[in-house]
Amino acid sequence: MKWLLGVLSTSLVLVCSCQSPKKKVIGNSNQTEASLSPELITTHYRDLNGNPVYLEDYKGKKLLLNFWSTHCKPCVEEMHTLERAKSDLETQDYITILVSNESVKEIEAFKVQHGFDLDYIQYTGNLAELKIYALPTTFIYNEKGEKAGKIEGKYNWNSSNTIEKLKEFK
Question: Which candidate, 146, 166, 168, 142, places its Cα nearest to that of 155?
Answer without folding.
Answer: 166
